Description:
The structure holds two protein chains of two kinds. By secondary structure, chain A is an alpha/beta fold. Helix content of chain A is 40%, strand content 12%. Chain A has 14 helices and 13 strands. In chain A, helix 3 (70-78) runs antiparallel to helix 10 (323-361), helix 7 packs parallel to helix 8 (221-235) and helix 11 crosses helix 12 (427-446). The model of chain A is unreliable at 5-10, 452-463 and 490-496 (pLDDT under 50). Chain B is α/β, with parallel strands linked by helices. Chain B is built from 13 helices and 13 strands. Chain B has helices at 39-50, 70-78, 91-107, 126-148, 165-173, 192-198, 221-235, 252-255, 323-361, 388-395, 427-446, 450-467, 475-495, and strands at residues 119-123, 156-160, 177-181, 203-209, 241-244, 268-274, 286-290, 302-304, 311-313, 364-366, 375-380, 404-406, 415-420. Chain B is globular, with a radius of gyration of 27 Å. At the A-B interface, helix 2, helix 3, helix 4, helix 5 and helix 6 of A face helix 1, helix 2, helix 3, helix 4 and helix 5 of B.
Amino acid sequence: MVLSKTASESDVSIHSTFASRYVRNSLPRFQMPDNSIPKEAAYQIINDELMLDGNPRLNLASFVTTWMEPECDKLMMAAINKNYVDMDEYPVTTELQNRCVNMIARLFNAPLEESEAAVGVGTVGSSEAIMLAGLAFKRKWQNKRKAEGKPYDKPNIVTGANVQVCWEKFARYFEVELKEVKLREGYYVMDPVKAVEMVDENTICVAAILGSTLNGEFEDVKLLNDLLLEKNKQTGWDTPIHVDAASGGFIAPFLYPELEWDFRLPLVKSINVSGHKYGLVYAGIGWVIWRSKEDLPDELIFHINYLGADQPTFTLNFSKGSSQVIAQYYQLIRLGWEGYRNVMENCHENAMVLKEGLEKTGCFNIVSKDDGVPLVAFSLKDNKRYNEFEVAEMLRRFGWIVPAYTMPADAQHVTVLRVVVREDFSRTLAERLVLDITKVLHELDSLPAKLSVTCEQKNGKNGTVVKKTVMETQREVTDYWKKFVLERKTNKNTIC
Amino acid sequence: MVISSTNTDSAEHLNCTFASRYVRAAVPKFKMPETSIPKEAAYQVINDELMLDGNPRLNLASFVTTWMEPECDKLIMASVNKNYVDMDEYPVTTELQNRCVNMIAHLFNAPVGDDETAIGLGTVGSSEAIMLAGLAFKRKWQQRRKAQGKPYDKPNIVTGANVQVCWEKFARYFEVELKEVKLREEYYIMDPVQAVELVDENTICVAAILGSTLTGEFEDVKLLNELLTKKNEETGWETPIHVDAASGGFIAPFLYPELEWDFRLPLVKSINVSGHKYGLVYAGVGWVVWRTKDDLPEELIFHINYLGTDQPTFTLNFSKGSSQIIAQYYQFIRLGFEGYKHIMENCMESTRVLREGLEKMGRFKIVSKDVGVPLVAFSLKDSSKHTVFELSENLRRFGWIIPAYTMPPNAEKIAVLRVVVREDFSRNLAERLLSNIEEVLKEIDTLPSRLSTKAAHVTATINETQDGKFPKKSETETLEEVTRQWKRFVDGRRTGAC
């Protein structure tokens, strides 16, 4: 561990890192360096370069938790060297996972007795959770078709075009056709009526989203359930529902307990939720719960023995850290039902403050609804002079990371900015953000319109020589340099 | 964040945790509790229960790193709230991943120029890495078959029966047939000759392991490459090779640089390695590297925009922590080539000490080889009275966690114990382990064999039930039987902590 190298250079132990030669050398990028360097130097150099990353807490693009209590940090650090998959060696950690599964299953009203163990598993995130759920559906459907003597080579899944990319990955990697219900302007979630129309005998499940990534809306799972029940009665296909509650799973039970979206609806067979979104844990944990044992085909579960005892495993990942599972349990017992509700209410309140502040500027259309995930998605009322992407770029100067993106088909012409309100986004920050957005709008307003400049250039390019006055040329040159300087200032974060 | 609840217990904030009511209440197991509790109580309650987990550093079952320098711990903690997938928001972290990929590709002699970016990525572990590599092979093979107008619905993969479970998962979840080369006694890895025989037109790749989980051996990838090249020439199938170097990838380049197992062999198209094994990082990071751009079909890569800018993504997992990637880069520049080499040499030295100590006891047969992953796998020369499973159970009393397991087909009657020597397993610990093993051997030698006890118990029960009447037993016999049962009961309780 400690290397004994002949200290031909007295450098090593005497010089402070910034006095040593280590800060003069460029950091290796392509090949492993031949020699070791002192650990302090390694730490300092990497730490310094990382200063140029965005500040996670100002990263308003992400739903993923960026703050936890110091007590939890302590627990996480203590468990950092525990390989979660060693169930036999770390039985308590395994037990903690099981308790989390039990609690989350009951949060989702799974039909369980009081002390019955729920069927579910912890994953690295909702992506893995969704793939496991999808696999279970695919296998069940195949078994059913085989028993009926029908072809089972063309499975498909029905979702909205607003799905997160992991559904598309699932479809492509596991060779399931993705049948997407297109969006339309003003309606950015999956339409249950259209979804049910698309269901056919090859549909392994319909996936509804509780908390769309694009604008935080909850899809109407109850309506979907009712319509699909009817269709199932007519066709006898037994098509089930999966709810992707990655964001909404830890919001709906606390803010909208009357909303029926979970196992209370009979067709819902599995649900996934991200522990690292509103489960209030750092990145790296998700959960998938099945309604009952029947919904998880036994043949998908593996049993291994080479870690010492029989160990069942049904996850895509094997070795991984234990910290996030322990942190999830910490949050569940530390906060309890009232704690989570208080946090979600605070988030909702701050989202409203932000929304009202934006509305008051008079420049924005609010695209997100009040109910749903606490976030504000908004677009410019008039984006002819400047668009949402430019607003996002300029906000970076203040440290805020606010993403701008276009909607998927069939609403690609709509661009939005989206601010996600997490637990650690207080009202003060919300007010400051509104202030900074107002500043940015002022600045963009004062810039000359880009359109006129492009027109002039086009004329010139047509071959005709456009005679420009000295003033015009000067203005063009100044505009160009102004934009250049602005770009340099705002692109500070895109260093690669 | 701070919960304000009406304080019915006015002394609540004064009581230390162990004076409070929180340690009297049963900890929630099935339902979320209604109310919050103070963070100190939550911390204490969980921390205390976790004391009953095994000690990770004494967990000799695992290849996964259990110790890192404090400076690295600092870096890890500082980045625990960075969601790795936010490439646009955290460009430096993304850059660090790319540098790691470059370095690992060069370590494996990938045909990349000095300043060229390698093709590869960081994953959560070798499981994900293998699934991605397998997906790439499957897709390439399907494309080739479609172009040839041949059926592409029955892909298969050829491996040894000693593969880690993730290959079986890959096969089952991605609907690829697994054609396993069976092992035999004394030969616990994949036989290249038999493997190449199993290859047919539907084979998407042959997977060789550098560092078998069972015995630490390196499979002969060079021989496999030669035999497969010949077969490909005859058949025109172009079957490629994948090397699962989960353990061996960070050992072979430092200890056995002449061993040709990587991209120096032309048929090797992708390699995976676990950063969290001998890459010397905590659990949660693996790497997969492809030979060239052509070996990774473009259609498998997704582009998303809703985090702000265009972002290519080809992983099974999306959001995950950044800590391990940063830690991996730390290790690369902190240790450098010479650092890794010294550590691997130290591991091999401790392994040698352990192996020789075990041989000296005269009771064990060493199943692992000298060359390979630093571990010692050993079986009992005589397992008629006591088994390795008993040894393993008894060693737990001292705190050691050493797994005992049976080999896969066709060597199922061989049972071994395996000690993995990681970076933090010093010579002192090796010697202590040896003395504990000797103690345990002495102890169980004095105990009656459990196997014969079980047989006796079974026969007794059979006699009882078959005859319908109770055979007359002498007082001593009954007493003996009762004592035996209780001893077994106590043993079972002692060793299975849950």
